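Hi R.,

Here's the chain you asked about this morning:
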Amino acid sequence: MAEEIINRVANSKLKVIDLEDYYPEGKRILFDIKDWLLEGLVLREKDFRDSVSQHDWSQYQDCYIALHCSTDAIVPDWAYMLITVQLKNHAKKIVIGTLDNLESILYTSIISNLDTSIYQDMPVIIKGCSHKPVPSNALVMLTEKLQPVAKSIMFGEACSSVPLYKRK
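And the predicted structure, written out as tokens:
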């Protein structure tokens, strides 16, 4: 007669956090302004303003936008601010930088608003593998937020975790 298989992980006090569960859904767009610069390098205010005013901003509805310039142009801050004025009523979030910067900023907000009271005095494992782009910076921020409350913090999967912290 076969013995019953018992899931010891499910029966333990171990709390698993998967940052992928908090991933904000929506299209991410890297918006390069180089095509609105003279030869990709010089911002001419009148031409730039014309490009901004003639652009169809509605195509960015509910998107996450990372504004950047892929050339070595010196772009004044007001240029990104002018684009932001147009995107504000369409995009979910607008940042200056790369898509990695965008993800990091999104997760900064998520983690800062995360209620950690359910992890009080509990062993916690931060899940490592994800199919969505969870930035490494988010793992560091989460560890920092959990350390004051968790009994212990591990990384990976319950079957093969790496111990990171244990309260003395």
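The chain has five helices and seven strands.

Let me know if you need anything else.
M.
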